[in-house]
Amino acid sequence: DVKVTQSSRYLVKRTGEKVFLECVQDMDHENMFWYRQDPGLGLRLIYFSYDVKMKEKGDIPEGYSVSREKKERFSLILESASTNQTSMYLCASRLQTGGVSYEQYFGPGTRLTVT
Amino acid sequence: GENVEQHPSTLSVQEGDSAVIKCTYSDSASNYFPWYKQELGKRPQLIIDIRSNVGEKKDQRIAVTLNKTAKHFSLHITETQPEDSAVYFCAARIKGGNKLTFGGGTRVLVKP
Fold first, then answer.
1. What pLDDT shows up at residue B1?
2. Cα A92 from Cα A112, distance rounded (Å)
3. In degrees rounded to 5, what are phi and psi of residue B43?
């Protein structure tokens, strides 16, 4: 059974703070993703990583960066948190092998509030 | 890039009735269309998906239809039950691409 975990369920930070959100998956998946979820906007892709040390911008990368030093861990970094980054953040991972992509599995989410 | 629109944003049905959610996509190169269900306070989970070489797929009470010409696909839930209450997301992925583009979500409420 695939397990994707995120470091915190709830997080409250102040404007200007540097924020780290961690995601870990235990199924040796190549691909990992960070989304933010806002009402009426669905899930919007911030960044994804198709392998260790590989990353690619998603649809809304501004104000975020990522790090993937190990295959199982994908970190989202808010360099200087702002109130408009208050949101639910979801991590996901996916097996990709032989040119075939499989189902994305999501983590439980981190609800971040920036005050 | 791909754009996915989803309607309606909210849907209230009586238990036992059917529910239909529709999505349209913009890029004709999209070939994979999953549907995710997110119960309150939980993570999204894949409930059904369809690829562009198939027009319809069914799994018990849920079915998905795809019209490639019109670039739209729909989720059908029959004999709805209270446990079907959730937010449903459609998504599309371009052939050979890595990312899913999601619709805005539909909040479904099944009234007993």
1. 81
2. 17
3. -85, 155
* pLDDT beyond 80 at A2: no
Residue entry with tokens 């239909």: B20
- Burial grade of A99 (CB within 10 A; 0-12, 13-18, 19 or more): exposed
Nearest-angstrom CA–CA distance, B28 and A104? 22
Give the residue numbers in A contacting B (CB under 8 Å), as ranges.
4, 31, 33, 35, 40-45, 48, 50, 56, 58-59, 90, 96, 101, 103-104, 106-109
What is the mean pLDDT of the segment spanning A42-50?
94
A102's tokens: 């499989």
Question: What residue ranges of chain B have pLDDT lower than 70?
Answer: none
